[in-house]
Every structure is written in structure tokens, then in C-alpha cells.
């Protein structure tokens, strides 16, 4: 027997600020319940319609933008810092060229910032509506979109109002973070250069975000860290782990309750 259900689900609410209607045909309802809960769980608004603080699709804060900018820049510098390449500088055929380690050159910083621009890495992020705070921005597909694609692979007709090949396009929140990232680099380029030449012993996020870009009341997101799926599952098991029953034992030495056993045998 085939069950016909037509659902109006806020699937794309987990990826963009626009809510598109999604129709799913010939699907029984229970596989959709986790998706509905994830999507609706992040939608909260005030009486005047403004999005509240825990809405996953609110605009990225300056703290979040600076956090992921420095994360990406540190990642690039870490990669190039491992090389032992030597750069030769000098002009003319007869002039003796100077040799300098690549990791100590201005070229390394220029390439880390602009080849391609470090802010382009922001477009690799997606909004994971099931996560809180700044952790909602992460690379890879969200649980919702992964579930939807799995349904499509199984032959389910899923309509989000946009072509299938555009499902992975950056959301409005990610493109806004991308734009703000360029603004920070432009406004604080000299500070980044100062850190590179004279303060690399200090963490870049601390030097740039905490000390220069952000107000003291807008730094909370910097302490938010993702523990990973395994760690989260481990914490859940600790919380929900049932107490072991001791059967028919009693006392500190675990002696059997003979009277109870006798009653059961009777």
C-alpha cells in the first residue's frame, strides 16, 4: 500500500534565509521527523518578527567573521611555514643574489592573503542549523542537506524550489560573512603585517580579533570550540547511561537474596 503525503517542510531554512516549500511524495512520515525538528528548532522570532539571538540564520557577527578569517589565515601560514624553500633576491647579472628562507619573506604573507584571497575560503562554509553559536558555520554539508541528498539517492522526489545542482551554493549568511571578511582584511591589513613581522609568537586571533577588531563585549564566540561528533555522542551516553541492576543480589558483598529466589521458585 502506498501512502500519499504532501509535506510543507522548512528544509531550505537550514541553508538560506528564504523559506522554500518542499514537497515529498510517496514517503511515509517518520523519516522526516528529525529533519523537521532540526529545521524548526532554530526558528524563533519576536512579536515584531525580528530574529532572536539563537536563530541560525542571523547575520554573522564581527566576532564570527574575525574568528574564521584568522582560522583560515593561520591554516595557510602553517602550511607554508613547513617548507624549507629558499628565495634568491637581487638585480643584475653580476650582482650577488641574497638568499632568504621563504617562510621569512614578504612573499609568503602576500600569497597567504591574496593567492587566492584568504576570504574566498569562507565560501567553503555552510550553515549547520543543528549547532549553536559560531559553530553553526562549518565546512561540509549540514545534517539536513546530507539527509535530503540521501533521500534523493533512494529515489524520493524532493523539491526545494531550486535546481538540484544549486543545493550547495553558499547561503545568505555565508555570503555576508564573505563580504565582511574582505572588509576586515582591508581595514586591518597593516595590523596583520605588524603581527607577521613582529608578533608571530602571539596567537593571531588574540592579536587581531581580541586586541584590535572586537569590542570586549563581542568576543564570546572565540571560546566556542567544536568537540566533534564522537565526543558529543560520548557525552550523550554518559548522560543517558542506565544504572546496572544488581539482579537478586543485596549487601556490599553482592550476596544473593535467598528468600526472593525461593519465592520465585515456588
From TrEMBL:
Keywords: Signal. Residues 63-221 form the DUF3456 domain. It comes from the Eukaryota. Residues 225-266 are annotated as: Disordered. Pfam families: DUF3456. InterPro entries: DUF3456 (IPR021852). Residues 226-266 have a biased composition (Basic and acidic residues). PANTHER family: CANOPY B, CTG4A-RELATED. This is DUF3456 domain-containing protein.
